[in-house]
Amino acid sequence: MISAGEFTEALAHFATGVTVVTVADGRDDIGSTITAFASISVEPPLVMVSITSTSYLAEVIDRRGRFAVNVLSARQKALAGRFAAAGRPSARLLLAAEPHQRGEHTGALVLTTAVAALECEVSQRVVAGDHTIYLASVLALPPVTGGADGPLIRYTSRYRTLG
Length: 163
What we know:
One of its GO terms (molecular function) is riboflavin reductase (NADPH) activity. Residues 11-161 form the Flavin reductase like domain. By secondary structure, the protein is an alpha+beta fold. The chain is built from 4 helices and 11 strands; from the N terminus they run H-E-E-E-E-H-E-H-H-E-E-E-E-E-E. The protein has one domain: Electron Transport, Fmn-binding Protein, Chain A (Pnp Oxidase, Chain A, Roll).
């Protein structure tokens, strides 16, 4: 179980960060860049992701119930763009040249050079307009090494860095 202190420390890294959400789906890995991600609770550790309801990613999350969140670093702007592109290949192919591992609790791809990574399990699903909001329990915080670069953020339709 994750302590409140560990979760609070991790929150500092991804409050406004661009994230890639990945899901293991048996024969393939699904992933997409999202910017609607927030911490909801420290005790218990809960986060929120908002995903277009008609997307394949939402369909797979609904079926699998677990996913990983990878908070991208300032150096990963190109990766964010690849995961945001229409018609993109599987997440496994997009991460082929990047250091990554499978999450122990979700089986989803975890980028080891991310600023922060979380393995999550859906605890509640809320449809809001054209998006589905997933409230998810944080199962684990896999070790990552990208914190020194700072987070990648999205502001005025562009990827930016802090500083």
